[in-house]
Design a protein that fits this description.
heterotrimer; A mainly alpha; B alpha/beta; C mainly alpha; A: mainly alpha; about 0% strand; B: alpha/beta; Rossmann fold; Alpha-Beta Plaits; 6-stranded mixed beta sheet; 5-stranded antiparallel beta sheet; elongated
Chain lengths: ~120, ~300, ~250
């Protein structure tokens, strides 16, 4: 499959899942589930380098989601607007670490699915 | 008990949507030395890997000595000796250590594995090098070790993938003699090779594969008659397209090949001598024949013709 | 699956294989590191909130070494145990003689055996330190428990890394993915308390048994011990089955 198409599918799928799951309030796990699903989908469709495309997709849709949240979510605006910069700093740092963790999880699921598919 | 020791039926192998083997059906009789011929990329190594269980077929059946490979692969592995194309051993281990390990994997106890290993290494000409690490072995020595490990526990079937690649003439002769010796002891041998001249010396049956399909399978003397059984070289001073067409339209002519301005090769398939008939026809059409020689086809010519035809 | 052939593969891997020296060296380094930490544990004992700090709890220290260092050492030992053979093509000579499941189990048995011996030696070192420095009795029961739990704990990681090695096309990918897998397990451990995630990580099984070796409360529940042993065996079986499925689907 074409690179652009693959990345679009990954990013759009990830965004949809993370938005839907955030309504159900799974908390941390919406990101994990989204990462796993995106990893599986990209692994099934990619001809090569599924890990690379998975990581890029996960980073991209998480950046988009959290940026939108920063502008429109009231709770997040409050945290980011704290006078003491340590708190927003810690918050942003936590989000970055979470995104890196999601990309680990997504890339692992992509690795497993792709290599099982390739071996068939 | 069927006389076929190896038979495949409707064998397919695909990588994604790309077919590598396309309905391969072959039969190897007990005691045969079966030569498996094909151009590069025809599917020889893939077929061999399927027979030895290294690959899983996309479709089809493989029956070896009456056992279905899907259900009894472990029993089948006990009766097969495989010499894969690439000899990839452990560089930092000795030949003897390899042989003992493989012998034990075949089910021999330590003592028998050691004894058989030394005997086989001696037979294959590696006795003096058996304690050397494989990293110091030449390509030819590695090939011989590959054959030696396949002969452990006297398998019923020996499958060799290009065993003489990279060997010198002495080495090739040794391998040939060894294969004849084991075949006399009722071992069935399945050998793939590009070295058609060598296969002519060794094999009694041949299968030709092209583009993943078996295009011919028969005794070696019959394969030479494949598509055409002879080639007549004709020299004509006034060779022209009209004469060439007249020759091509003869019913026993398979094809023609222009060698030069005056000389044409005519591939024929006929049990009788057709030279007088061709000569008469050319003369009737005002052709001035200065040469008319018949050559019999080698297996190589038959192979090249067959693969070009398909 | 053939038990004799599994034993042949394991025996060869440990004593004659091309990686046997590497494997034994990694095991040796693990023992050596443990010895150094145990020896100098007197100096760092104040960092640990032990109730009884007259006697240094050597078993507990050894167990913590196994819990923390063990997964890293098993990663180094096992990440390319399978993919290296597939990459070089040497696996063809083996798989033409034995079934694929026996091959995987043989490799697993080799790795587990080496690390079982390593933890046994670590347990003996702890006992000797405890015996000679604090005149504590030689506790055979504790040694056996230590060896059983530690080796099962490490074999959980070994089975996971073997699965990744079976899937990987090359050693570099296997190393990276094994590292990623370890990272995910650590994350699951920290996040998993109170939900199902904890069962996905061997760290949970390891921590559950820490009380046996003189943890904070010295509480010991036999049922909990049996439960974690059973779960670790299930964990091993799952990953070994996955590895077996992966190698059966793989073209060699």
């Amino acid at each position: 499959m074409d690179t652009k198409k693959l990345l679009s599918i990954g990013i759009v799928t990830g965004l949809i899942i993370i938005v839907i799951f955030s309504y159900f309030n799974f908390g941390f796990y919406d990101g994990v589930i989204a990462a796993i699903i995106v990893g599986v989908i990209i692994a099934r469709e990619a001809d090569n380098s599924p890990i690379k495309y998975t990581v890029i997709s996960i980073l991209a849709y998480n950046m988009i989601y959290w940026t939108i949240m920063a502008f429109f979510d009231q709770d997040m605006k409050m945290v980011l607007g704290y006078e003491n910069k340590a708190i927003p700093g810690l918050f942003v740092g936590t989000i970055i670490i979470m995104i890196i963790l999601f990309s680990f999880i997504g890339s692992f699921s992509a690795f497993v699915v792709y290599n099982l598919k390739k071996s068939k | 008990m069927t006389s076929n020791i190896i038979s495949t039926k409707g064998l397919y192998k695909r990588y994604g949507s790309k077919p590598v083997l396309n309905d391969v059906t072959l039969n190897v009789e007990r005691g045969d030395i079966y030569g498996f011929l094909g151009q590069n990329g025809a599917g020889k190594t893939t077929t061999i890997k399927l027979l030895s269980g290294l690959l899983i077929p996309s479709e089809g059946k493989i029956i070896i000595d009456g056992m279905d490979i899907d259900n009894e692969s472990e029993n089948i592995k006990n009766i097969i000796g495989l010499v894969p194309q690439d000899s990839n051993f452990y560089d930092k281990r000795s030949a003897l250590s390899h042989m003992q390990y493989y012998g034990r994997l075949k089910g021999l106890n330590k003592k028998d594995a050691a004894e058989q290993s030394i005997t086989l290494l001696d037979k294959i000409g590696l006795k003096n090098a058996m304690h050397k690490n494989i990293g110091h072995f030449s390509h030819g020595m590695k090939k011989r070790l590959g054959i030696a490990q396949a002969l452990l526990k006297d398998p019923k079937i020996l499958i060799l993938d290009e065993p003489t690649n990279g060997l010198d003439p002495v080495g090739i002769r040794q391998i040939r003699d060894l294969l004849h010796e084991y075949n006399r002891g009722d071992m069935t041998i399945f050998i793939s090779s590009h070295n058609l001249l060598e296969l002519q010396e060794i094999c009694n049956r041949v299968g030709i594969i092209n583009n993943g399909k078996i295009i011919a399978e028969d005794k070696i003397e019959n394969i030479r008659h494949l598509e055409s059984n002879g080639v007549i070289t004709i020299g004509i001073y006034n060779l022209n397209p009209k004469i060439i067409n007249i020759i091509r339209n003869l019913k026993f002519v398979v094809k023609t090949e222009l060698r030069s301005e005056y000389v044409i090769d005519v591939f024929v398939n006929s049990k009788k001598d057709v030279k007088p008939e061709i000569n008469k026809l050319i003369v009737e059409n005002n052709g001035q024949v200065f040469k008319l020689i018949e050559n019999s086809l080698s297996l190589e010519d038959a192979f090249i013709n067959a693969t070009k035809m398909h | 699956m053939n038990i004799l052939k599994i034993i042949v593969v394991a025996e060869d891997e440990m004593f004659n294989g091309s990686k046997s020296k590497y494997l034994l060296a990694v095991g040796g380094i693990f023992i050596f590191l443990s010895l150094v930490i145990i020896h100098y544990s007197n100096s760092i004992i104040s960092l640990f909130p032990f109730q009884n700090n007259i006697n240094v709890p050597y078993y507990l220290i050894s167990y913590l070494i196994v819990l923390i260092l063990g997964p890293l050492v098993t990663l180094i030992a096992s990440y390319d145990f399978i993919c290296n053979e597939i990459q070089t093509g040497s696996i063809r000579y083996i798989i033409s003689k034995i079934d694929r499941t026996s091959f995987i189990l043989g490799k697993f048995l080799a790795l587990s055996s080496v690390f079982t011996v390593a933890v046994f030696i670590i347990a003996i070192i702890s006992s000797l330190y405890s015996l000679f420095l604090f005149n504590n009795a030689f506790e055979l029961g504790k040694i056996i428990l230590f060896v059983v739990i530690s080796s099962l704990y490490l074999s959980c990681f070994i089975s996971g890394f073997l699965f990744i090695s079976t899937l990987s096309p090359e050693s570099k990918t296997a190393l990276i993915m094994s590292g990623v897998f370890l990272g995910i397990l650590i994350f699951a451990f920290f996040k998993g308390n109170g939900n199902f995630l904890k069962y996905l990580t061997p760290y949970f099984y390891g921590i559950s048994n820490i009380e046996l070796f003189g943890g904070l409360t010295h509480k010991f529940e036999f049922f909990e011990l049996l439960k974690t042993i059973f779960l670790m065996i299930v964990y091993n079986s799952v990953f070994l089955s996955l590895a077996s499925i992966a190698i059966k689907r793989r073209d060699l």
